Structures are given as structure tokens and as C-alpha cells.
Amino acid sequence: MTSVSRAIGIDESGCLSDPELPMSVVVSLSSHNPADYKRTSSERVARYNGKPRGRVKHHDSYLPPFGSFQYVALTPAHMRDAELIYGEPETDEELSWNEKFYEFRLRHDAIIRLLEERNFDPNNEKVIIDAFCGPSVMLRQLSLAWQRQYGEPLARRSVECQTHADEHYPIINAADEDANRLMTRLRYPERFEGHDESWRAREITLSADDMMRLNLNRHMQREARRRMEHADFSDVQPAFDAA
Were both Cys, which of 13, 178, 201, 229 would link to 65 (CB 3.0–4.6 Å)? Predict the structure, then answer.
């Protein structure tokens, strides 16, 4: 890939294992401006995104989300489905995910859904992701999921997974800011009564069907559907209501 026609930055906020507010938001931000996705210093990232001098982690949650963003909101209902669809961790790699197997898998699937909604073309576009686990592990899992759907793994040149990417790429810093602003609105809707809610139209769903499609063959999907039909959800925490 000699040139990049567009870049998509991805970051997230929140945690599904938070005992008080179990939810997270995964955000994609799209840009055709090379300055947005060129690696630079944290000082320049802060200046580029209008942050106070040198404060690349600064968030102003009361400003509305901005730019060409889309998001997936992950809730306890996703965790309930994940346990029935993904099964138990089996490989040494999966067992090493700090007991966050389902949470990590959901985030991977949310990223793929966002790329699908963006009509991502790995031949001339690039995605940059602020990695929430080992970058090489994350890249491998995303590539496998993409291959299941489209027949080819994601080319290494079309994906960057880096820890602390929000400190070095303006587009990731902006995605991080949007994720925090969205998360605040979903957690505390009463604080934003009367505010513009057009951001809700940018939500992308991650359904149980999507999760099966991205991870299971047809036989395994049939088995997962049987498990879901016979599951008892009476003692499961209700899904977060973002409405």
C-alpha cells in the first residue's frame, strides 16, 4: 500500500467488568486528512486537538462528540450473550487475558462491526487502534475475524495496534475524547436533559447474530442458538438502557 486514501481511528472508554457501571463504548473516527493519522509528539497531538498545553489526556465531557464518529455501546446484555456464544477460553493465549476473555472478544467484534459500517477497504485504507491488550494478540484476533468474513486476513500494512496510541495520533486522541463524551452521556443522561441528542443516531449495533457470524461456523452457530433458546436469564443483570 503506497498511499492511504482514508484512516479510521478506534478507541474506547469504560469497562464491562466495572462492578458499579458495567458498560463500555467503542468509537471509530474517520478522516481523509493525513495530518490526522500521522504519528507525532504528544505536545503536537494536544495542540492539534485543542487541549490545554501538553495535556493530551484532558477531557471536556460536557462538549458534544465531534467529527465523523460512530460507536458501539457494549452492555451487560452483550456479556450474557457472549458467555453462550463464545464458550469457555481454551488456548493459553485466551486464558492469559486477565479473566477478561468475554470482554476482549466483545471489543474485537465491536471493532470489526465498526469497520464493516465504514466499508473499510484494507487495500488502500488504514485502521489505527489504541490496543487494550497486547498489540500483536489484538492484531491476530482481528485479522482472523476479518478472514472468516471476507476470505483474507487483514494485511499487516493496513492495521496498526499500539498501546497509548491516543498520545501520538491526533485521530486516536479525538476518538478517545469522543468515547469519553459518549460514555458520560450514557452513564449520566440526567445531566444532559435538553441537550442535543443527534449523537444517538451514530450508534452501530452488535447483535448476537453478528457475534455468531464473526466467530462461529454454521454448525457452531446452530449449537449456540440452542444454548440461547434454553438459557435462563432470570438472574442476569438487566441490559443497560441507553434510551
Answer: 178
* CA 181/CA 64 separation, integer angstroms: 7
Query: Which ranges in 130-238 belong to alpha helices (H)?
Result: 135-150, 170-187, 208-215, 218-230
Per-residue pLDDT in tens (0 to 9) along the chain, 243 residues: 458 999 999 999 999 988 888 999 999 999 999 999 999 999 999 999 999 887 898 888 889 999 999 999 999 999 999 988 888 877 777 777 767 888 999 999 999 999 999 999 999 999 999 988 778 888 988 998 899 889 988 888 899 999 999 999 999 999 999 999 999 999 999 999 999 999 999 999 999 999 998 888 778 888 888 888 877 654 445 444 443
For the stretch 194-200, contacts whose Cβ atoms lie closer than 8 Å and that sit 24 or more positions apart, written own/partner, are 195/64, 196/64, 199/64, 199/65, 200/242
Give Cα separations from 198 to 69, 194, 201 (angstroms): 12, 12, 6
Task: Give the DSSP H or E segment for 15.
Answer: strand 6-15
Report whether 36 contacts 171 (CB < 8 A). Answer: yes
Question: Do 12 and 25 touch, CB atoms closer than 8 A?
Answer: yes
Cell 490496543 -> residue: 131
- Residues whose CB falls within 8 Å of the CB of residue 76, separated by 6 or more in sequence, listed in order: 16, 22, 23, 236, 237, 238, 239, 240
Residue type, 100: K
Q: How far is it, in rounded angstroms, from Cα 216 to Cα 54?
A: 45
Residue 40's nearest CA partner among 172, 130, 156, 135 is 172
